[in-house]
Amino acid sequence: MAPPSLWRSEMYLFRLALASLANRRFTAFLTAFAIALSVCLLLAVERVRTEARASFASTISGTDLI
């Protein structure tokens, strides 16, 4: 287990980070929202890509390409 002085310094940093987030609520919200939106867009693009590939494969599956 960590010595008490190290534990106190870690708690101090944690409290400092929370205080910084509390003082910058709007910026923290916008950052979290932008990250969430980016993840959703990434997942949506990946799904569209997968569906387009599957649709293309099913369209040409019965066609002789030569």
UniProtKB/TrEMBL annotation:
Residue stretches spanning the membrane: 26-45
Keywords for the protein's UniProt record, in alphabetical order: Membrane, Transmembrane, Transmembrane helix
The name this protein goes by in its record: Permease
Organism per entry: Pseudomonas syringae pv. maculicola
